[in-house]
Amino acid sequence: MDLKSDHVRSFLNAYLRDRIPPLLFIGPEGVGKEHAAVDFARLICCNRRPKCELAGTLCESCQKAVRLEHHAIHFVYPTPSMGGGEKPGDDETEIGKILDVKRLDFFDTHRFAKKVSIRIARARAIIQRANIKPFGSGRNVFLVCRADLMREEAQNAILKLVEEPPGHTVLICLTENLDSILPTIRSRCQRLRFSPLRSSLVEGLLVDYYSTPVTAARVAAPMSQGSIRRAREIVAEQDDVGRKHAYEIVAGLVDAPQSWVIKNALMVSRYGSRDSVARFLHELASAYRDIMTGEESLFINQDQARMLAAQTGNWDPRRVPAVLDRIIETHDEILRRNLNMEAALVDLFLDIKHLRC
Questions:
Q1: What is the DSSP code (8-state) at residue 298?
Q2: Mean pLDDT of the residues in the chain
Q3: Which end of the chain lies in a sparser environment, N or C, as judged by fewer CB atoms within 10 Å?
Q4: Which pTM value belongs to this model?
Q5: In this structure, is the dihedral angle defined by the CA atoms of residues 173, 130, 86 and 79, taken in order, positive or negative?
């Protein structure tokens, strides 16, 4: 399974023939950043000439890399804080839980109940390991996933490693939010941007990798915004109350009284989890993107085309981008901050209503 675009493939292949600088992979969740990073690490550690092809017969080193068990490929993930006195390596059990889930389904991840981050103890562990050449392998490869959740003091701690990495060390940071990476690190990394996956590729993954029925995959893929994780959520929730509720709100928000707006905001806030509310907001944003498009034949949500076409006439297209900005802002705040969901959703719904006025 190769998710890399021609642009990504040619960029990474060029570095296989030369010294590899610190790399920064940038793009939304679920578009193949981590998959590309793992496969690039596999190629770095592969001892065959020419290198093993992912779809072909793999050497022992490549097999270990694919199983996420290679001793020279080091995974770093945000984990819950263990409190004061945390030492390098204290988060290895939690990182192991994440890898256990990914060995079963690479696009899944372990969900922690507490807020997660990458802290200075993990940064120190990276530095210690980076200065030790791996036994039986030419290089250590560090994959820092969700580097945007690395605390500032941890980013400062690895700055020297970014500036002057040992010759046997490769550092790859993955981020959804470039602004959360310190400028001193951004400026010293070679950046590679990942675009949303093609709808046809997402559909193929759903059918071939997850055995999703073709009809369900064809509905989910265009709505996924190029994210395989989002596509899987849509498949799981195609009959979900949250999606239906999102379109009921879009249809009723403009003309409804303020009491109705507040009531529905409170209903959404009680879906049971922040992830459920975040998925609802994805649906809401998708609906308003269609309204902004204004052309029914281009709508992603074809099952709601009639209602969305009617709503297009209720909106000045110059105001809809502000609606999308507010939805995305609320989505990010709910997932990344300990935000009061009731208050955030009431404010969002009222803001959308007022933007129509």
A1: G
A2: 88
A3: C
A4: 0.68
A5: positive
